[in-house]
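Handout, page 2. Input:
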Amino acid sequence: MPEFLVWLLALTLLLATWKRGSRARLLALAALLVQIASTPIFAGVYAILPRLASSRMGMGGSDLSLLYRFASLGHSLVAAVAWALILAAFFSALKAPEKPPG
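Output:
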């Protein structure tokens, strides 16, 4: 929950300064939206996996553990994409040093 509040605060600050516009803000917005959307989506996935596995697939505990591992891997990959967007936003905001004339 605390990280969700931080994302919402960052989203608010980002939108409040949007008029200045830049590629960095667009990348940061994409990252925040990925994080904010993935949290409830994966919470739902983790909640329905046991019911889905037992009722439709007839899976046991070890099979369910494997499903959770794949879901966790997917969640980690989505978080990695969001962090890559944050890093891209940070580095795109940096200006290249100017070369001295001559």
